[in-house]
Design goal:
Blueprint (H helix, E strand, L loop, with lengths): L3 E5 L3 H13 L3 E5 L2 H11 L3 E5 L7 H9 L6 E5 L4 H9 L4 E4 L4 H26 L8 E4 L2 E4 L4 E4 L2 E2 L4 H12 L4 E2 L1 H9 L8 H14 L9 E4 L3 E4 L2
Parallel strand pairs: 1-2, 1-3, 3-4, 4-5
Antiparallel strand pairs: 6-7, 7-8, 8-9, 10-12, 11-12
Helix pairs in contact: 2-3, 6-7, 6-8
C-alpha cells in the first residue's frame, strides 16, 4: 500500500508540481489549500507525512502544526518562503520535524521526504517488534522516579506514562545510555536524528527543553539534563 502524503500549499502551481512529482515516486497524495482544510484532511486521511506551507489562509502553518501535534505524531516538513532563522525556530517550537526554504529543488524535497518516511517505517517496525510476544524481559532504565522502558518505548515519571514524541523518547534514551558523559549538540544531532537530517543544533536545544518540562522538578534549574556551558549536555539521571 503506497505511503500517503498530505500537501498543504495555497499556491496552485506549486501544489500541482509537488503532487505530480510525489505521485511519480509512487506516493498517494492528498491536497489542501488553507489551514482549516489542512486540519480536516489530516484528521480524516491520517497521512504518513505532511508537507506544510507556513503562509496559509485561514490558519497559518505554525498554528496548524501546533494543533496537529496535540493529536498525532505524523512527521511534518514545513515549507517557508524566507530563509529566516525565526521561521525555523518557531517551526521546531511547534513540533515540525524538518523545514525547507523556498525556492528548493525537487530533488532535495524528495530526499527529505524519503528520509522522514524511512524513519517512520523504522519506528513502526520497532514498535511492532516491541509489542510482539517475547521471552526476554522488558529492558527498563530506572533513575529514581524516572523510568525509560525500551520495550514499550515509554517514559514514566512516578509510575505514570508521559506523553512524548518519538524523537523525545529517542533523545532521552540516548542521553541516559551515556549517563555522566558530556555530549555535544552535533554528536546528539547525528546520533539521534541521523546524518541525513539537514537541520541545525537548535533542534537539540528545543527537544531538550521539551524533555526538561516533562521530567525535571524545576525546568528552569534542571538537575537531570544539565547544560555544560560551551560543550553540550550531560544526563545525570
Amino acid at each position: 500500500m503506497p505511503e500517503k502524503i498530505l500537501v498543504v500549499e495555497d499556491e496552485r502551481t506549486l501544489q500541482e508540481t509537488l503532487a505530480y512529482n510525489l505521485r511519480r515516486q509512487g506516493y498517494e497524495v492528498e491536497l489542501a489549500s488553507d489551514g482549516p482544510s489542512a486540519l480536516t484532511q489530516a484528521r480524516s486521511t491520517q497521512p504518513d507525512l505532511i508537507l506544510l506551507d507556513i503562509m496559509l489562509p485561514g490558519l497559518d502553518g505554525f498554528e496548524v502544526c501546533r494543533i496537529l501535534r496535540q493529536e498525532m505524531t505524523t512527521p511534518v516538513l514545513m515549507l517557508t518562503a524566507r530563509d529566516d532563522e525565526i521561521d525555523r525556530v518557531v517551526g521546531l517550537e511547534v513540533g515540525a520535524d524538518d523545514y525547507l526554504t523556498k525556492p528548493f529543488s525537487m530533488r532535495e524535497l524528495l530526499a527529505r521526504v524519503k528520509a522522514l518516511l524511512r524513519r517512520v517505517r523504522i519506528l513502526r517496525e520497532e514498535f511492532s517488534s516491541s509489542t510482539a510476544p517475547a521471552e526476554a524481559p522488558a529492558k527498563v532504565l530506572v533513575f529514581s522516579n524516572l523510568e525509560i522502558d525500551q520495550t514499550r518505548r515509554e517514559i514514566r515519571l512516578n509510575g505514570q506514562p508521559l506523553a512524548v514524541k518519538p524523537k523525545e523518547f529517542e533523545l532521552l534514551l540516548y542521553l541516559a545510555e551515556h549517563r555522566g558523559q558530556v555530549l555535544t549538540r552535533d554528536r546528539v544531532l547525528e546520533s539521534v536524528w541521523g546524518w541525513e537530517f539537514t537541520g541545525d543544533s537548535r533542534t537539540v536545544d528545543v527537544h531538550i527543553r521539551w524533555l526538561r518540562e516533562k521530567i525535571e522538578t524545576d525546568p528552569a534549574t534542571p538537575s537531570r539534563i544539565v547544560t555544560v556551558r560551551g560543550a553540550g549536555y550531560r544526563f545525570e539521571g
